[in-house]
Design a protein that fits this description.
Blueprint: E1 3-7, E2 10-13, E3 18-25, E4 33-39, E5 46-51, E6 58-60, E7 68-73, E8 78-83, E9 92-99, E10 113-114, E11 118-123
Parallel strand pairs: 2-11
Antiparallel strand pairs: 1-3, 3-8, 4-5, 4-9, 5-6, 7-8, 9-10, 9-11
Length: 124
């Protein structure tokens, strides 16, 4: 059983930056691909980014490509999401998730473990 705890959310102005972290415990972190998802007010949960087990491969949603960067530190059992040029559309609860499969997927149902989420609010 893997436990995931997100941190780093908060209130930021339009154009600002935030760095989210997700600390994992209870499993072998390097055997999981990791993803970030988000759910905005009144919206469905949506895929944001994914990183492979080694960190050598990443996938991004079109809406964040060029602004967000996913990375991981397997020695520290942590995955990060660097978010730049934030706008109101990025306001959401952000969740990290772990996937035991090596098959890249953006589908939330394919992920095995989830954190509780961290709120990101972008104000103008």
């Amino acid at each position: 059983q893997v436990q995931l705890v997100e941190s780093g959310g908060g209130l930021v102005q339009t154009g600002g930056s935030l760095r989210l972290s997700c600390a994992a415990s209870g499993g072998t972190f390097s055997t999981y691909a990791m993803g970030w998802f988000r759910q905005g007010p009144g919206k469905e949960r949506e895929f944001v980014a994914r990183i492979s087990r080694s960190g050598g491969s990443t996938i991004y949603a079109d809406s964040v490509k060029g602004r967000f960067t996913i990375s991981r530190d397997n020695a520290k059992n942590t995955v990060f999401l660097q978010m730049n040029s934030l706008n109101a559309e990025d306001t959401a609860v952000y969740y990290c998730a772990a996937d035991r499969s090596v098959v890249p997927t953006t589908t939330s149902a394919k992920y095995d473990y989830w954190g509780q989420g961290t709120q990101v609010t972008v104000s103008s």
